[in-house]
Design a protein that fits this description.
Elements lengths: L20 E8 L3 H11 L7 E4 L15 H4 L12 H6 L2 E4 L4 E5 L4 E4 L4 E9 L3 E3 L12 E2 L4 H8 L7 E5 L3 H12 L3 E5 L12 H13 L3 E3 L4 E8 L2 E6 L4 E4 L1 E4 L3 E3 L2 H5 L4 E2 L1 E3 L11 E3 L4 E5 L4 E3 L4 H15 L11 E6 L2 E7 L6 E8 L3 E8 L2 E8 L5 H10 L5 H12 L1
Bound molecules: flavin-adenine dinucleotide.
């Protein structure tokens, strides 16, 4: 466990407890899990006071459209909010935006925000999500180097679209792949640089990864594998020069970095909550100290169907886990048994992923239509641990049932399953 500490704010601690606003529930973070947690709480506690603190400028919104639907016009900015402002009034939730929680006192159940205001609580839900991994390159503090996590990142890029002709994505993560396709569809020249032979190397097996590379090339996206940027220099007039590890260089206008994300566990660590690859919770969402809960991207939870701890970065999981843990804060006592979905879409290729997905597991691809439609099974000792559905609609429950059954099957039986599911 890391021992990172936030700057202490000890001068507040001398105040008498009666000075504090006190809430029954405090939600730290304003994303998908936060919005769902409110519904979970209210399903079991109609009256308990709720405070939501978020460092963002906006009420909770859906992140997936930031790299897809907003670019192709299938969704407007106005449709992004998870709930309209009235929802928070109706549910009697106090919302404080542009507030960063900087300290948690887990003994006395008090938190402080970046304006020095403190709040006492009975239950705190940590739904602080993830932050992008930073690019370690000389000149990476250039304003042309961008990360892409929040609505502000979308707005900043969108307002520059008119004057941008060339974009480079670096890192080969989900957002890099999706944005490369989205910006290409908007007529931009796009170069993708990724460190392995194919993007999403940690998840996709070689066959699918290389099919994805072919697909990106068919969209006229330039792909550079086995590379990263090590230096960025300003060239003037809004252009920058990127130099790769291998000594090649390119001139571009925007460098979008997506090398994956890391869970924002700093607050939890500083409050002495157990962390590992995320904040460790039990099947109810409880952290290692009473009164603390975590959900969504930041939480490492017992994935009951797999019998192991997992952390899942996915919008459907954030919603379901957030709602479940919110309900448990209000006394529901329901374990999280859901097999969460992680999905992504690259132009017209849709990937739906469930279970344990790691390219180090054995995998098998069953194509229905080569390169267009198929199923990837992730296997351990011939037991299916994870499934990716490629352009295969309405098969999620089918995939979940195969993982839950945990039966050993041979190749013929798996192929027969796919055929039967199509019939
Ligand atoms: C561009 C993009 C596209 C995506 N597309 C897909 C997709 O297609 N499919 C899919 O399944 N998933 C997708 N995801 C992932 C999905 O959006 C996340 O899994 C989901 O948003 C996680 O929700 P969350 O509530 O756990 O965390 P987040 O949505 O990250 O919310 C965390 C919130 O906490 C706030 N916060 C953090 N620390 C503090 C603090 N100390 N004080 C106050 N506030 C704080 C943050 O500002 C943020 O508002 C995408 C993500 C991005 C960025």
């Amino acid at each position: 466990m890391s021992v990172a500490r936030l700057a202490p704010n000890t001068h507040h601690r001398g105040r008498a407890r009666k000075d504090f606003m006190h809430y029954r529930y405090v939600i730290v973070g304003g994303g998908i899990a936060a919005a769902a947690a409110i519904e979970g709480i209210r399903a079991h506690d109609a009256d308990g006071s709720i405070l939501l603190l978020s460092r963002e400028n906006h009420l909770p919104y859906q992140r997936p459209p930031l790299s897809k639907d907003l670019w192709n016009g299938s969704l407007d900015l106005e449709q992004l909010a998870i709930h309209a402002a009235e929802f928070y009034e109706q549910q009697r939730v106090d919302v404080r935006l542009r507030r960063e929680v900087v300290e948690l006192d887990s003994e006395n159940r008090i938190l402080w925000d970046d304006r020095g205001e403190s709040v006492g609580f009975d239950h705190a839900l940590l739904v602080t999500g993830c932050r992008p991994r930073r690019l370690q390159a000389r000149g990476a503090d250039s304003p042309s180097v961008r990360y892409f996590r929040a609505l502000e990142d979308y707005l900043a890029l969108e307002t520059q679209m008119e004057r941008i002709q060339h974009v480079t994505t670096v890192g080969g993560g989900f957002t890099a792949v999706e944005l490369s396709a989205a910006l290409r569809a908007r007529g931009k020249e796009v170069t993708m640089i990724f460190p392995e032979e194919w993007p999403l190397r940690r998840i996709l097996p070689r066959e699918i990864g290389m099919a994805l590379v072919d697909y990106l090339r068919s969209l006229d996206i330039e792909t550079v594998s086995g590379e990263t940027l090590v230096e960025i220099t300003e060239e003037g007039n809004g252009f920058v020069r990127g130099t790769t590890y291998g000594g090649n260089s390119l001139t571009t206008q925007i460098i979008l970095v997506d090398q994956g994300s890391e869970p924002q566990v700093d607050l939890a660590e500083a409050a002495n909550l157990d962390t590992d690859d995320g904040i460790v919770v039990d099947e109810y969402g409880r952290c290692s100290r009473p009164g603390f809960w975590a959900a969504g991207d930041v939480a490492e939870f017992p994935y009951l169907a797999l019998g192991q701890l997992e952390r899942v970065e996915g919008s459907e999981h954030a919603e379901k886990h957030g709602r479940c843990v919110g309900a448990n804060m209000a006394g529901a006592g329901v374990p999280y048994t859901h097999l969460p979905l992680k999905w992504f879409r690259v132009a017209d290729l849709q990937f739906e992923c469930v279970g344990e997905l790691h390219s180090r597991l054995d995998s098998e691809v069953v194509w229905v239509e080569e390169g267009r439609e198929g199923v990837v099974f992730y296997l351990r000792d011939d037991v299916v641990r994870g499934v990716i559905l490629i352009n295969t609609t309405d098969r999620l429950d089918w995939a979940r049932a195969i993982i839950s059954d945990a039966k050993a099957m041979d190749r013929t039986e798996r192929a027969a399953l796919v055929a039967a599911a199509r019939a």
